[in-house]
Amino acid sequence: MIKLDLPIDCMNYTQVIDSCINKMGKNNILRIKLETNKYDLIKISKLYMKWGKSNELFKCLRLHNTQPINMRNCCINYNQDTDDMIKIYTTYFVKNRCGGFYDKIINNAKNPNIQCPFCGGINSPNELDHFLPKRSFSYYAIFPYNLIPICKDCNQIYKREFYPKDKNRQLIHPYLDNEQVFNEKWLYARCIIDSSLDLGIEEKLSVEFYVNTPSNWEEDKKEKVKLHFRQFKLAERFAIHSVSSLKTLLDHIKWFKSANQAMQTVEGFIDSVIDSEKLPNSWKKALFEAVKKELPTIWSSI
Predict the structure, then answer these.
(1) Helices (H), the chain
(2) Is the Cβ–Cβ distance between 160 and 151 less than 8 Å?
(3) DSSP state, 299?
(4) What residues contact residue 277 under an 8 Å CB cut-off, 6+ apart?
(5) Is the CB of residue 2 less than 8 Å from the CB of residue 120?
(6) How far is 214 from 296, CA to CA, in rounded Å?
(7) In terms of Cα–Cα distance, which of 200, 221, 277 is closest to 245?
(8) Residue 17 CB-density burial (10 A; 0-12 exposed, 13-18 middle, 19+ buried)
(9) Helix or strand or coil: residue 211?
(10) CA distance 83 to 79
(11) Would you say which domain of life the source belongs to (predicted)?
C-alpha cells in the first residue's frame, strides 16, 4: 500500500550481524554459531533481495521446528536452528537494541505521510513485522529487509504468520515491490445511495472500496494487490475509517448549499483535497473521488 525505503544506515547486513555478535560473551554458543555462519547468512540474504524484486519470495525454503538451515549450497554449521535465530532477534536485536537498528527501522515509518504501510496508514506502526515469519524463515530473523514497520492490528489480526505460497499468493512488500504497485492507481470507491429509505442523505449514503488493477499489469501483480486487499480486510477497514471524513464532507456540502454557493464551488473544494493526497491509492483520495462522481445526486438530496 505505501512504499518504504529502508534507512541507509540499516542496509549493511554485515553491520547488523556484527552488532549482535559484539553484545555476546566470547564463549556464548550463539556467538560461536553466528560468527561461523555469518557469511552464509549474508549469502542467503542476496537470494531474498533477488526474489523479492522478481516477485518470487515463495521460493524461500520454509523450515520446520529445529530443522537446520540449508539453502542453495549455504549449509549452516553447528546446527544453528530456528530457536537460535529467534533468540538472537528477541534478546539482542530487540531487547538489547544492538546497533539501534530496531528503532531506526520502526521510526522510519512514524511519519504522518507514511504510517503503517500494510493498511495504507489507517494506524501508526508500533511493531516490526517479519515479512517472512521468523518461526518458518528464521535465517532472515535479523535481516533488515525482512523487518517492516507495522501497526498492531495488521500484524496480530490480519497478517499473523502469512507467508507466500506461490506466485499468485503473495502480499505487497513495502521495500521491494515494483514501483507500479505504489505509483499506479488500483484503489477505488463507489457511493451507494439507498433511495428506498425515507431518510436524510447521511443515513442513505454509504461507501464501498474495491480494487481495479490496470489492464496492462501482469497477472501475478494483479493477484498480489487483490490478495493484499483481502488479507488485511481493507474494504471493511477503509469503510469504517472513512465514516468521519464522509460526515465532515457532507457537512461541508450542506454549508455550501445553505450559503447559496454553486455546486461547482463544492467540486473545486473536493478537487483540492484529491490533489493534496499524493498517494494514488490513498483511501481518502478514493473516498473524495467517489463523492465527486455522485455529487449531483447528493447535492439534490440535501
Answers:
(1) 13-21, 29-53, 82-87, 101-107, 152-153, 179-183, 201-204, 219-231, 234-241, 243-258, 263-276, 283-293, 295-301
(2) no
(3) H
(4) 284, 285, 288
(5) yes
(6) 28
(7) 277
(8) buried
(9) strand
(10) 11
(11) Bacteria
| pLDDT (tens digit per residue) in 217-268 | 999 999 999 999 999 999 999 999 999 999 999 999 999 999 989 999 999 9
The residue type at 183: N
> Which triple of cell numbers denotes residue 14?
554485515
Q: What is the pLDDT of residues 130-186, one digit of tens each?
A: 999 999 999 999 999 999 999 999 999 999 999 999 999 999 999 999 999 999 999
192 vs 62 pLDDT, higher one = 192
- Look over the chain and give the mean of its residue pLDDT values, rounded to a whole number: 91
| Amino acid found at 193 | I
Q: What SS3 state is found at 116? A: coil
Q: Give the other-Cβ count within 10 Å of 285's Cβ.
A: 21
Question: What is 131-183 written as a DSSP string?
Answer: SS-TTT-GGGTT-GGGEEEE-HHIIIIIITT----STTS----TTTS-HHHHH
Cα distance between residue 149 and residue 129, in whole Å:
6
286, 273 Cβ separation under 8 angstroms: no
Q: Rounded to whole angstroms, how far apart are CA atoms 6 and 16? A: 13
Query: Which residues lie closer than 8 Å to 252 by C-beta, 6 or more apart?
Result: 266, 269
